Amino acid sequence: MALNVVVAGLPKAVQHAQDPDEGLWLTDEQRARVLGAAPDVRLEHLPVSQLNAGRGPERAPHAIMVETSGSKPSLDVEQGILTRSGLDVLLGPELRLLQSMSAGAEHLVGVVPDGVAFANASGVSAPAIAETVIAGLLADAKMLRERWRHQAARAWVELPARELSDTVLVVLGTGNIGASTARIARVLGIRTIGVNRTGQPVDGFDETTTTEHLHDALARADHFVIAAPLTPATRGLVDATALAAMKPGGWVANVARGAIHDADALAAALHDGHLRGALIDCHVTEPLPADDPLWAAPGATVLPHDSHASQLLGDRQVDLFVDNLSRLSQGRPLRNLVDLSRGY
What we know:
27% helix, 16% strand, 2 domains, 10 helices, seven-stranded parallel sheet, alpha/beta, five-stranded parallel sheet, 12 strands, Rossmann fold, elongated
């Protein structure tokens, strides 16, 4: 039996796309791999303008890999995005698998039809995001911001840089991104504490605890990384009280979703010196408005939600999709299935 496959939409931060505005990015080699994932795969790599205008594929798809705004029309302005109306064109009765090119799932909760397997891209971006977090942590400890400023002024100034060994890193969210970050941190001699819903142990962490005990963990933290999915339970979880629970002079990174932390409280903690620094990759409003206080907050590094940028991103998206197509054709369990009741 033929397996009809559609790929549509531009994965965020994918590099060297042939036509990014149309979301066309698969290379010839990647196309060949998709076609070889199972017997008789029929692939359509479609421009988003066609689907967004209501013109569907030649064949009703059994499996799709999409970058879509889903239930968030505010994302429709993003380059190469498949809109909700474009996605609806693909959600026919033959569909068996919807593979998202995003790790987040909140924009597709309530959108994926009953009976359709929904897989996300969790893990695809984890290595790049973990590297970004560790780069920010090292830049802060070694005072690179100050060193670059001194170099620009041709000033020879010795600085009291710090080692990271024997410091404590708390990570909210122990999935692929959190665990990848923790594993690198441990190589640097950092003690790692993972925070998740159940407190279950996770490889890469020296210890784990529950979200109920987040503030207790933060009281021990020199560094804090937010890497959890956005759910009703995590929305607003990192508020002023949580930030105040950290040791004075702490450092914070958010590489998850902007709505998890209180942006005003974070900026205030940077301005009053309670926090030494922060690396914030995700924001409630994107692009971040020019008058947002985070831009000028002492020690803040503002990223445009691209901590996952990598030359390997496209290949990893295809790796996951090819594996799931093979599993689908053989009736084996799929990878990265999302529990829609939890939102991740």
